[in-house]
Amino acid sequence: MIGVDVCLISRIARAIGNERFVERVFTQGEREYCDGKTVPARSYAGIYAAKEAVVKALGAGITDFNFHDLEITHGKNGAPKVALHGEAEKFADGAKLHVSISHDGDNATAVCMAEVGK
Hints:
This protein has a single domain, classed as CATH 3.90.470.20. The chain has 5 helices and 5 strands; from the N terminus they run βααααββαββ. The chain has helices at 9-15, 19-25, 28-35, 40-57, 86-92, and strands at residues 2-8, 70-74, 80-84, 96-104, 107-115. The chain has a 3-stranded antiparallel beta sheet with strand order 1-5-4. The mean pLDDT is 95.
């Protein structure tokens, strides 16, 4: 299955001013990654879009697990990767996930492909 999400960077820029939102949606590692960037809102928006794309690719609803169960990490080359924890890992049932994030203007876009082995 494939999931796609587009997120307005300006919307996330406003939202990350609310610490409660940031703590609810992003893991500590994601926050450290984003806060280390020149324009943190771009990275926050990309990660948010990636999480939404993963949920869609798994055929889930965001209420099936919490945002911290989906963690977007980055490899040495900067490519995003998905790490599943808790309920999300159970829900995925071994699916292999591939994610891509792109930014253009005020948009952050993410695509996730879930390879299901069954």
